[in-house]
Amino acid sequence: MTDQKLTALPARGVPAPQVLDEVRALRAGDRPTHGGRLFAYVYDPGVAGLDELAQAAYAQSAHVNGLDPTAFPSLLAMENGLVGAAARLLGGGPGSTAPDVVGSVTSGGTESLMLAVKAARDARPDLAEPRIVVPTSGHAAFAKAAHYLRVVLDPVPVDPVTLRPAPAEVAAAIRPETVLVAASAPSYAHGVVDPVAEIAAAAAAAGVRCHVDACFGGWTLPWLRRLGAPVPPFDFTVDGVTSISVDLHKYAYAPKGVSVLLHGSAALRAPQYFAYADWPGYTMVNPVIASTRSGGPIAAAWATLRHLGEDGYLRLAATTRDAVAGLADAVRAVDGLRLLAEPAATVVCFTADDPGLDLFVLVDELTARGWHTQPQLSYAGLPASVHLTVTASVAPRVAEFAPALAAAVAAARAAGPVELPPELRALAAGLTPDALTPELVAGLAAGLGLGATGVPDRMAVVNTLLDAAPPAVRERLLAEFVGLLQRPTW
User: pLDDT, tens digit, for every residue of 30-67?
Assistant: First the structure.
């Protein structure tokens, strides 16, 4: 039996101070959420006092339930305020060309995208096999939505140089059964903005909805434009754009669990709702996937926006822009590395042209030096790359990053590329998902140091193995690996 202090349900209750000490001890092994050294997953503005404000607002509304907005008008007021702020920032609202924009607050970008697909699908009940057209650079949540909602996903490749889809190819992929066409502003992997105006025009010509996934950039691109950046049209000012998603827990710097899905009109939003009265209980009416929702994240987001204001976000965007430029210069200064795309927003993405420089080893070397980046595997002719999500808190660290990157590159070159045994590489490349039995996966995991105790400090071998496998095998391997990690503690 696990030691009582680590058991979620001990025989005797534990005093509150001890519980908090245990939480802090568990958190000690996590990546740093603050301080500008983690380039994925978290968004830190580096604003003193903001965490405390958000936490206090969260606590005020943690037990408020979004299931019934008539019971808790405070939550309804805050949700409507968040939707209005996002709509105004993205070209909608009174006096705009999209005055009838409405929206909903969701738990995150994945839920926003799933609901955009649901609304498009349910608006066409006449179709037996609805389809969506999405660039291959579109977020994986579109594929998740297609899987959950039984919609066919029609991917459109991106140009290997521009990393954007060709509008003509998007138009050619639209069929009579297509219910939604998607574009990214920007794409998560590479940080480039799709040709939204041309894609929306193609969708409109076919009478199809067009969703802009601005989860990642919707709260930064407008401020960058105000600062003079050449941001292409992507929002409700573009004819043919019918819905937009923007995450507030990214560059609005709210705590996790808040995104906004906007529709051009109430009629476009209507199929998003789920209502059910054919049972003896209360009539269920949900604008989003969840029924019960804590008001905590919404209150925290509302407080964050109120506190920072437009002037605060403009300052944070300027700080982030400067950090992006500094990081990009650091990459350009290293022989053997090159930017995969010129930064257009808040992403720095780079690859290696030097065969003696293994990107996955480089990622490990950066981690060893306290810099936590995100490796991206090769795909459809696109090389493996390293992704940096840049936030305002990174700016004070830029001067430290450049020498750390140079040192990590030197160490990676000295270590040399990962060499998988030929038989293991052949196995990875030739496997099919059905051949991955639990026994085979468990054996691979044990050999790679993956298991119930966690993951190894260095992941280059694991990433090299995954990179050698086709996408379907990667999916199955990673699902099985995560399954090995997620086991109950007794």
Answer: 999 999 999 999 999 999 999 999 999 999 999 999 99
Distance of alpha carbon 407 from alpha carbon 404, whole angstroms: 5
DSSP 193-240: ---HHHHHHHHHHTT-EEEEE-TTTTTTHHHHHHTT--PPP-STTSTT
d(CA 140, CA 6) in angstroms, rounded, equals: 35
**In angstroms, rounded to a whole number, what is the distance separating the alpha carbons of residues 264 and 103?**
9
Residues with Cβ within 8 Å of residue 62, at least 6 apart in sequence:
294, 295, 296
Does pLDDT of 12 surpass 50?
A: yes
Question: In the chain, what are the domains?
Answer: 60-303 (3.40.640.10), 310-415 (3.90.1150.10), 422-485 (no CATH)
Q: What are phi and psi of 5, to 5 degrees?
A: -65, -15
- Coil, strand or helix at 331: helix
Distance between start and end Cα atoms, the chain: 6
At residue 406, the 3 state secondary structure works out as: helix
- Is the pLDDT at 2 greater than 80? The verdict is no
DSSP state for residue 357 in the 8-state scheme: -
Burial status of residue 81 (CB atoms within 10 A of its CB: 0-12, 13-18, 19 or more): middle
Convert the pLDDT of each residue in 122-165 to its tens digit.
Answer: 999 999 999 999 999 999 999 999 999 999 999 999 999 999 99
pLDDT tens figures, 436-476 = 888 888 888 887 777 656 677 889 999 999 999 999 999 99
- The torsion angle over the Cα atoms of residues 295, 249, 50 and 25, rounded to 10 degrees, is 90
Would you state the torsion angle of the CA atoms of residues 256, 258, 261, 262, taken in this order, to the nearest 10 degrees?
A: -130
Q: Look at the chain and count its residues.
A: 490
DSSP designation for 93:
S
Q: How many CB atoms lie within 10 A of CB 47?
A: 17
The tokens of 475 are what?
């999916």
